[in-house]
Amino acid sequence: MANFKFKRVLLKLGGESLAGPNGFGIEPEQANAVARRVKDVRAMGIEVAIVIGAGNLWRGKQGLDLGMDRATADYMGMLATVMNAMALMDSLERGGVYTRVQSAIEMRSVAEPYIRRRAIRHLEKGRVVIFGAGTGNPFFSTDTAAALRAVEIDADVLIKATKVDGVYDDDPKKNPDARKFDTLTYIDVLNRRLEVMDSTAISLCMENNLPILVVNLWDPSSLERALRGEKVGTLVSA
Q1: Disulfide: which of 55, 59, 90, 206 matches 186 by Cβ 3.0-4.6 Å?
Q2: Architecture of domain 8-237
Q3: How far is 85 from 107, CA to CA, in rounded Å?
Q4: What is the H or E stretch that residue 131 is in?
Q5: What is the pLDDT of residues 151-176, one digit of tens each?
Q6: pTM beyond 0.90, yes or no
């Protein structure tokens, strides 16, 4: 562990990381690919917790545009995150990684209820813990859930895993002149309205001095290099 900068990390994944080419649903091979990345990190001796979104199964904004009640749309999204968590758990365990799913909404037949001390104990025993159902409350995103859980379990860093290699001042896919940031402060992110995480999540990390590291999940070496403290992706801190 002496070679690694972080001992315990929370990995925030978008639901799209489990989807196929069309960006919708759960593609088993994609889940297996994500599981392999997590297994590699776990094999380094680093404790790993995960929060995963549900954009591949349900987007609440679509319901809102059709007049759906906001709380109902949010609860549907929270339930969808549990489906993603179970899919990823299955892939991890088939790969030999002991995994527990904890849900903020009780559903004891499929997941443990979220209990902070139990989650920490799982991590100490070398298990990966996947937190499902967001915060258990509507009007909060999975970004905020990730920040909250990371603070609660005393993670050393919140890693936002994306399909790009960091944070840019514009969309690099549309603008070839977009500039990548190596480092940012929390205030920079809020003032520039950069799409790192939502403002509630950023504020929570800022108040608790929790660094956020944005890296490309699909670069085979980026996670390991970042965990060693190398300059990879974009680091958001004080």
Answers
A1: 206
A2: 3-Layer(aba) Sandwich (3.40)
A3: 13
A4: strand 128-132
A5: 999 999 999 998 888 899 888 888 88
A6: yes
